[in-house]
Write a structure and sequence with these properties.
- There is one protein chain.
- The chain is α+β, with helices and mostly antiparallel strands.
- It has one domain (3-127): 3-Layer(aba) Sandwich (Chemotaxis protein chec).
- It is built from 6 helices and 8 strands, in the order E-E-H-E-E-H-H-E-E-H-E-E-H-H.
- The strands form 2 sheets. The chain has a 6-stranded antiparallel sheet with strand order 1-7-8-4-3-5, with helices on both faces. A two-stranded antiparallel sheet has the order 2-6.
- The longest helix is centred in the C-terminal third of the chain and has 13 residues, at 127-139.
């Protein structure tokens, strides 16, 4: 159980988009949504991947974004990149979401999509980009571990 009774998105898995760009969301991720959130997702770009948020977690991001400067260029750029690319996705009867073509193109997701649980959200990566990220993580693990140790983990 997570904070406030929520369960978390955990684990990794490879999935395939169909010809229409629909992605089946793993049962374990759907169960987190059904148990702790609204059974829907909000997708947006973050870096090289898409991030899927339950509506309640996304609402917190929007509330924080409202506090950002409307004038400061970097803060406007963040809102432009993350908030303006956000799209609501509902599940079909087969437990799939449609990833809009523009988001598939930006994230370079064609057929294979790698999903990675990130506690309150999950990432959707193009398989080649995921492999690069995994390699980078392995090469930089010691440095990351040392930084995280400073936070008491």
């Amino acid at each position: 159980m997570g904070i406030g009774g929520n369960s978390y998105f955990r684990g990794q898995s490879l999935h395939y988009l169909d010809d229409k760009g629909r992605l089946r969301i793993p049962t374990r991720f759907r169960e987190v949504l059904q148990k702790s959130y609204t059974d829907a997702l909000l997708l947006t770009m973050m870096g090289d991947c898409l991030v899927a948020f339950p509506p309640e977690a996304w609402q917190k991001i929007e509330e924080k974004a409202l506090e950002l400067s409307q004038i400061q260029p970097q803060q406007r750029a963040f809102v432009r990149y993350v908030i303006s690319s956000a799209v609501e996705c509902e599940f079909d009867k087969q437990g799939r979401i449609l990833i809009p073509p523009v988001l598939r193109e930006r994230a370079e997701i064609e057929k294979e999509a790698f999903l990675a649980g990130m506690l309150t959200n999950f990432e959707i990566w193009a398989k080649p980009k995921w492999d690069e990220q995994l390699k980078w993580g392995k090469e930089n693990f010691q440095q990351m571990a040392e930084e995280i140790a400073n936070y008491g983990l």
